[in-house]
Amino acid sequence: MGDHVKCKAPVMSIDKETARRAAHLARIAVPEEDLDVLATELSGILGFMEQLNEVDVDGVEPMTSVSPMSLYRRADVVTDGNQPEKILKNAPEAREGFFAVPKVVE
Length: 106
Prior knowledge:
By secondary structure, the chain is mainly α. It has a domain at 16-53. 32% of the residues lie in helices and 4% in strands. The protein has a two-stranded antiparallel sheet with strand order 1-2. A hairpin with a 2-residue loop joins β1 and β2. Belongs to the GatC family.
């Protein structure tokens, strides 16, 4: 399709220390013995992403679905939901059709 040449960057390899840092930043507790496996999996993910970069998408329009369709849109109207009994059914306490909350300011 195109006459341009894409530069192919080398696939980044994740080492154990980078995997440890990524787990820390994501607030995920990873045991020391599992860091090598995590590093391998993250490197594999980066490899898949690199494969996606090789696909020529020139002239391809972005899409939100594989089949053309329009989403149903309801009217943008403010309502109370017309079901106050159901809404208040699970409330810890309700008074006069509203949620009752403890007083927090004297």
